[in-house]
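Re: that backbone. Tokens:
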């Protein structure tokens, strides 16, 4: 019975470690297609960048081999997604498409201007810059 508990504890520790590793790989695969070994490239870029913070560089260095393993396991998924259009999956394109479908620009053009009341009792309207079309 004691041996079974030790095996279970070891299995639980291994699963916990593997679940928390490969963060760059998981993050790069949750968005639009970024090519092959995108998590490994992201971790290597953080490690090589001298402007990365003192906390991120060691974490990325620890994550690098785990991301390489996860990227290798996810190669079939990357191959499947290789022909997809990357522009349509980007958050910017999804927001622009949503604004066009919901006619957001028309509703914003009819909105009342924002008035900010200052501490001395005067009201001012901030400069509004329309987005470039």
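Recovered sequence:
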């Amino acid at each position: 019975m004691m041996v079974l508990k030790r095996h279970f504890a070891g299995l639980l520790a291994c699963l916990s470690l593997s679940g928390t590793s490969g963060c760059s790989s998981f993050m790069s695969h949750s968005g639009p297609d970024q090519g092959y070994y995108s998590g490994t490239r992201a971790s290597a870029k953080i490690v090589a960048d001298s402007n990365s913070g003192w906390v991120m560089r060691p974490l990325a260095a620890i994550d690098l081999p785990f991301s390489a393993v996860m990227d290798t396991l996810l190669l079939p998924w990357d191959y499947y997604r290789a022909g997809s259009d990357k522009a349509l999956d980007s958050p910017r394109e999804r927001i622009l498409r949503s604004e066009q479908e919901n006619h957001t620009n028309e509703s914003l053009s009819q909105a009342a201007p924002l008035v900010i009341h200052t501490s001395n009792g005067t009201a001012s309207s901030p400069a509004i810059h329309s987005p470039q079309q």
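The radius of gyration is 24 Å. The chain has eight helices and two strands.
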